[in-house]
C-alpha cells in the first residue's frame, strides 16, 4: 500500500488555493478536494501487518493540536520547479509532529528516509524541463508572493492511502487520530 500521514485544511483555504491555481497555465494541478498537508510519507510498499502495527502505535499516542496558517509560495526543484506549493507557518509544531510520527513509523518497521521536512500544500507538479513551471512560479510570486490565510487548528491526523490512476492520485482516509 502507498501510505502517508496528513492534515486536512479548511474549505475556505481550499477555495483560496484553488483561486491561486486559476492563474497557473502549466503542470498537473492538484484537485482542490485533494489538498492536504503531508506530515510523513510512509512509502509505496507498506504491508498490511506494518500498517496495522502503525495504526496501533498512532492510536495510543496523544498528539498536540496547535494553530497553523498557510503562508507564502515556494517550490521544489533547483534549476526549474518540479512542484509549486503554499507553505505553512509556524513550522515548529508541524516539524515536531513529523518527527514524532516518523519515530512511530520506524517503531512499526518502516524504513523512512531522513530528510528535511518542509510542510506545504502542493498546487501543481511539473515534469523536468516544463517551461511553464518557471512562468507559473514567477506569476504566483509577483501577484501572490505574500499570500497568507488566517490560522486554523487541525482536528485530526489522517492515515491516508494513495491510489494512483491515469488522471492522478485518489486518496482514501484509513484512520483518523484526534489532535488535542
TrEMBL record:
<dbReference type="GO" id="GO:0004113">
    <property type="term" value="F:2',3'-cyclic-nucleotide 3'-phosphodiesterase activity"/>
</dbReference>
<feature type="short sequence motif" description="HXTX 2">
    <location>
        <begin position="120"/>
        <end position="123"/>
    </location>
</feature>
<keyword id="KW-0378">Hydrolase</keyword>
<dbReference type="Pfam" id="PF13563">
    <property type="entry name" value="2_5_RNA_ligase2"/>
</dbReference>
<dbReference type="InterPro" id="IPR004175">
    <property type="entry name" value="RNA_CPDase"/>
</dbReference>
<comment type="similarity">
    <text>Belongs to the 2H phosphoesterase superfamily. ThpR family.</text>
</comment>
<feature type="active site" description="Proton acceptor">
    <location>
        <position position="120"/>
    </location>
</feature>
<feature type="short sequence motif" description="HXTX 1">
    <location>
        <begin position="36"/>
        <end position="39"/>
    </location>
</feature>
<dbReference type="GO" id="GO:0008664">
    <property type="term" value="F:RNA 2',3'-cyclic 3'-phosphodiesterase activity"/>
</dbReference>
<comment type="function">
    <text>Hydrolyzes RNA 2',3'-cyclic phosphodiester to an RNA 2'-phosphomonoester.</text>
</comment>
<protein>
    <recommendedName>
        <fullName>RNA 2',3'-cyclic phosphodiesterase</fullName>
        <ecNumber>3.1.4.58</ecNumber>
    </recommendedName>
</protein>
<feature type="active site" description="Proton donor">
    <location>
        <position position="36"/>
    </location>
</feature>
<dbReference type="InterPro" id="IPR009097">
    <property type="entry name" value="Cyclic_Pdiesterase"/>
</dbReference>
Amino acid at each position: 500500500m502507498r501510505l502517508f500521514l496528513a492534515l486536512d485544511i479548511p474549505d475556505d483555504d481550499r477555495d483560496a488555493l484553488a483561486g491561486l491555481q486559476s492563474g497557473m497555465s502549466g503542470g498537473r494541478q492538484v484537485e482542490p478536494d485533494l489538498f492536504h498537508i503531508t506530515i510523513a510519507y510512509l512509502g509505496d510498499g507498506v504491508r498490511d501487518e506494518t500498517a496495522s502495527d502503525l495504526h496501533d502505535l498512532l492510536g495510543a499516542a496523544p498528539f498536540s493540536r496547535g494553530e497553523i496558517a498557510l503562508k507564502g509560495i515556494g517550490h521544489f526543484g533547483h534549476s526549474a520547479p518540479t512542484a509549486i506549493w503554499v507553505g505553512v507557518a509556524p513550522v515548529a509544531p508541524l516539524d515536531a509532529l513529523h518527527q514524532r510520527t516518523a519515530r512511530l513509523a520506524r517503531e512499526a518497521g518502516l524504513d523512512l528516509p531522513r530528510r528535511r521536512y518542509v510542510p506545504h500544500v502542493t498546487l501543481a507538479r511539473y515534469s523536468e524541463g516544463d517551461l511553464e513551471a518557471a512562468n507559473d512560479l514567477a506569476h504566483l510570486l509577483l501577484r501572490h508572493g505574500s499570500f497568507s490565510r488566517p490560522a486554523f487548528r487541525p482536528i485530526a491526523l489522517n492515515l491516508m492511502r494513495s491510489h494512483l490512476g491515469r488522471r492522478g492520485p485518489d486518496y482514501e482516509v484509513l484512520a483518523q487520530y484526534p489532535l488535542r
